[in-house]
Amino acid sequence: MRHPPCDDFRVVALLPAHPNNGADNSRGQVGLLIDADKSSGDDTTRFLACSLYQPGRGGNPVYVHSKAAVIDDAWLTVGSANLNEHSLFNDTEVNVVVRDEALVREVRLRLWGEHLERPCEEIEGEPSRVVDELWRPLAEERLERRKRDGWADGKLTLLPHVSRRTEALWGPLNGLVVDG
User: Fold this and answer.
1) pTM score
2) 81, part of any domain
3) Under a CB-based contact definition with an 8 Å cutoff, are residues 127 and 73 in contact?
4) Angle (nearest 5°) at CA 92 between 90 and 96
């Protein structure tokens, strides 16, 4: 995040608003990414962490349990493995990797269309532009509305409650938990 490979580099993470476990680890790592993004030396915000809620009054958080990643419309992984060391190397998990660019792009467009609640025609453009002009403003507005009114009219919301309190313990604990 501090040294992006190009100007249009963006990372969008969709995470549970209230994870069942690992909340401090996840939020700590998200906090580190946000801090690295802020220290990149330019005004572009490249990292966006969001969550999903049921739309409307009384809408509860949607527990995002998907393990998927799309990179550059060229690489896709979907499976049961969490994208961390423990799950990838110690658990009996499996993921599929796809390198068919047409399929990968189609998956991204369909996922983004669902999360943004927009037709594919509105999100087909340059991904960095879609993140900057649709994802971020929509997610920020919905978080503000949830804070103000207790609900919002759509699903996508900026991820609340990012904590950095586990940063000091992460290194020693990672070695113990992953390798121990």
Assistant:
1) 0.83
2) no
3) yes
4) 110
State which amino acid sits at residue 155: K
d(CA 59, CA 109): 25
Whether 159 is in a domain gets the answer: yes
Residue 84 within any structural domain of the chain: no
Give the tens place of pLDDT for each residue, 27-67: 778 888 888 888 877 888 999 999 999 999 999 999 988 88
Residue 146 lies in a domain: yes
Could you tell me if 162 and 49 are in contact, meaning their C-beta atoms sit under 8 angstroms apart?
yes
User: What's the angle, vertex CA 19, arms to CA 10 and CA 90, rounded to 5?
Assistant: 80
Q: What count of residues does the chain have? A: 180
Q: What is the domain range of residue 36?
A: 11-72+114-179
CB contact at 8 A, 29 and 138: no
